[in-house]
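Quick question, first post here. What does this chain look like in 3D?
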Amino acid sequence: MLKTFSIGGVHPHENKRSAHQAIVGARVPAKAVILLGQHIGAPAKPVVAKGDVVKVGTKIGEAAGFVSAAIHSSVSGKVAKIDSVVDASGYAKPAIFIDVEGDVWEEGIDRDPSLVKECLLSSEEIIKKIADAGIVGLGGACFPTQVKLTPPPSFKAQCLIINAVECEPYLTADHQLMLERAEEIMVGVSLLMKAIKVNKAFIGIENNKPDAIARMGKVSSAYAGIEVVPLKVKYPQGGEKQLIDAVISRQVPSGALPIATGAVVQNVGTAFAVYEAVQKNKPLFERVVTVTGKSVANPSNLLVRIGTPISQLIDACGGLPEDTGKVISGGPMMGRALANLDAPSAKGTSGVLIMDLREAKRGQTRNCIRCAKCVSVCPMGLEPYLLGALGENADFERMETERIMDCIECGSCQFTCPAYRPLLDYCRLGKARVGAMIRARQAKK
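> Answer (accepted):
Ran it through. Tokens below.
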């Protein structure tokens, strides 16, 4: 029997239209706009100035604290300015603008495609190389990877779990990466195991990717301690807490870190980036992005330089369809609508979803009918109908009591609501407000 998580979950249509589309390199932009804040935590501090000449892989921003990540140039050329730009969220954020001239890479980056398996570095040296490369979680949260690999002293890692679920509808970047770069991923998994000093790793893959399960299973057989775990198809199995539950049957306590279960979770794309950083000296300046939609002419998996305008990626896949209703950064469940199609791609840009008018239209909001469907599907055991009402009425103190900070913003509640209540919107609002309240309290201590 296939494993899965124990509470809630939904089954949206998969719509994996770009599945089995080979990864193709996207055109290098004429101007790259590289955000300084592409991760959870403090934005990076710029270490270049207007007029400086940079190469592909040059560090242009350094981590500004423990929870932060370095930023590297994805192009070669001259720094035009350091200014703000409207990002995918619709807010102005600091960024470095680079006028592209040629495609000259830093000399230390190994561009030879041959596999490098042996690594004589210590755990600490591996973590330092990961930090220097600016690697963050590529599953969406963008948590600085080196932070996850150095848990608090009171916790000890017992196993590594690789998130290869890709449960978001439409997205196929991780799936295709596994098919094309399984060997490199497996070396990356071994490096992560060495970094956290464990001898067991699990790679969770949903059963709708049988070719990836077969490919990764075959390659993993040559690596000690790595096991591929087929999982039942259920959203949001890619959530960190849900994946831990599914793979090792341990639940993360309310308010606790996932490491409390003894597991460290990393995305499969992150494992590949770790391989490139440690074995090839390549910083994280490009990633695979799925560009897709029901009316998109050529749904694709593109290898994208960070800082490339989203509009350029859409053009590469046939342009914006006439019946476009909304463009989403990410997938339809957890992604966010783009306010600006010229927003730059970032480390966390896993997909660009172009929804047609019919798909993008929300149903008319009606009164809650107390059906409790949202309660039954919530993977965190919350009461979304109540949290939605509290958010609507700005009762943020009560939202904190009702465990809004445990919400993973998966959207399962809103997806299943027959009254079309904007439950996810209110939960996101409440979570942001309650988070600010908690930080304010802590600052006073």
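The two ends are 50 Å apart (CA to CA).
The CA atoms of residues 130 and 277 lie 6 Å apart.
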